[in-house]
Amino acid sequence: MTVRWSGHTGASSYKITATPKNSPEPSVFAQFSGSTVMGSVNSLSPNTVYRMRVEAMDNAVNVLSSAETEETTAPEVPFIHQAYSKHSDSITVEFSVVSGATSYIIRAENDDGFFSESLVNTSPGTVVGLLPYTQYTLSVMSVNTGGRSQPSLPLNARTVLVAPDLFSSSPSSGMIVIEWNPLDHAVLYSLVMTMEGSDMRVRLNTSETNLNFTNLQPGTTYSIKANAWDPDGNQGDEITIYQITRPPVPGDVQVQLTLGRSIDLAVYWQIVRGADVYTAVSSTGQNCSSNLDTFCVISPLSCSQNHSITVTAQNEAGPSDPSSPQDLLTFPCPPELVWIEEPTTGNCSVTWNKVQWVDHYIAYVKRDDGLEEQCNTTGTTCYFQCICGYSYLSTVFAYNLAGTSPPGQIVNYTTIPCCPDNLSVSLISTETLEISWSSVRGAELYETIAADGSEWIHCNDTAPVCALSDLTCDSLYSVVVRPCSETQGCNKTCSAHTRRTAPCAPVILNVTQVNSSTVEVFWMATNTEANYTVIAMGLSQLLTCSSSSTSCYISVSCGSTYDVSAYATTTAGQSLPSYSIPLETGPCCPETLSVDQVTQSMTNITWSAATGARSYITSLTSPRGHARCHTMDTHCLLGCITCGTSYNVSLEAFSITGHKSECSYHGFSASACCPSSVRLYRMDNNTLRVYWRSSPGLYNYTADLHGTRSNYSCSATNGAHGCDISEILCGEVYTVVVAPLTQEGSKVTYCPRRLYSVSCSGNTVGMVIYRGRRSVD
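Above: the chain's sequence. Below: its structure in token form.
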């Protein structure tokens, strides 16, 4: 017995004394050093109550302190009679029962280090949790309140083989196949088959790992027991499984269509043994199943199907063989793809894809005004007449012995809109065309295109009128109106109409004044076959000229201002006017002009006012010299005139802007020069001779003598230098004037006067005395 205590201070040793409580046997003691706190006492009697006393002693063996307790010793060691294994995970041990033992511990060990202790109440006892076909060393210990005894003498025993792990199946209604994995150390396998509800048993032994049981009842459950044998002839664990065979083939299978909201396929059969569920399978892949009923319904059915129906019965082992097939044809499908084409204008066709199990087709075509027609054919195309601007609806039905197909795809085809009638192309401005037409059926939009070879202009509108602006002037446009629909696009077969735009406006390049009454207008023209009209707009008059070339002449009034513009005219219309160019003509020439010689070297020129003139330059020109004056008046005094000279008379009129008109008039001839060296000589018979020195030339002269009482004159022609005056009254002072005559015969009035005194000598003329010159009055 082992005792444990707490240490005591100062103790040098401890003494344990074990004294039997109810036995006369002597006490037993043992002594330990002062550093020990646990010790055992041997040689005690089994299953006996002892008083255990521990004393702490010093070096003088004096007891310093003590303590006591009572404990019972373990029972006697049991004896193993035998050990055997009935299961692969346990060994049963039979041993002797000892007095005072309350329980027993069975210890199991093996060479792989396994160790376990199992508590049992009596013999025999079983150790579990062991490995199959493994040798163990077994021993037994008895147990009471005092503890456990020493192990008994060991005994070796081996566990039996584990049961094979069976896999069963029924590949057919009369056969079951059993398979298992091989077991180590197994030399033989035993299998026993028993049919449920019968005493018939079949026992087979084999060293293989599979076994087939044939000629069995279909749809019947069998139990299969199996165990393995080791080389020592020990039977291993036993396993029992249950396997049912597949059911037999269902008989009397019938199929028929059921009518309701939808068309279904009902399949009927007879019940067979061992079936849990029945499945009807169609060749289309559809199926239906039933557990209790003798029919099932395949739904929904599809069109154009040729069903081949078989029925199989099934349980947990698998399905039976299929029944004999039953055939059924369903109504046809409508064509999946239907389309309408218009290979040529006005000729349409409706075409569809081919459908299986169809005898013939009927195609229906309905126009949007209600007209309907149909076509019966075995092919996949029907033809019909189609008119532009209409919509057509078409559907196709398929037929076979089972009936007609459901309504199929409805296709809509709209023919292209018709080309419009009453199309009119009008030129509403120089570069704008207005196109109008009658509305056409089916047109959702009108596309108007105008092309002149270099540009395209589009106009899209829903109204039957369109204005194309910003066109090129003097261009021939081809105008096409295309009605369009959303489905068919635009009708590209419509005829074109041609219309030329108004001519381009000419550009005036220059205006040149040819003379005082005529201007020539030049312009740049880009039109073909156009006539041009030039307009000169004055304050009070409108002047025009026309030409098909690039210039024309306009007769204008002098002294006027004009706005000059031009426009072109063709058969298409009239262009816009060109930009205006201002034109100012030269001032008018004075209608009258007169030249008066005031003195021998000075003339006075006068003229009438000229329209548009602000200033004038008047000129007298001759080979012997010229004279001119610049004035804003209508008269001018010119000096330095040479007498006896012919002059050209001209006048230049200037406007306020500097425009000039040159005016020419009849020439002016200055009168002959006044004679010089005028002398008065006394002649016989009271006659006086007037003498002068004249200018070269055959001029005519007149000599006048003016006295207080009488006047006298005489003439000389063809350049003569003197003339005589008879019967002169003496005693007078005479004023003598000798003047040339003009071409018109008038007398020049500006020649100088001379005074002479004529004295009397008796009754006759006496002395003639020169008294000097006298100013002109």
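Residues 624 and 645 are 8 Å apart (CA to CA).
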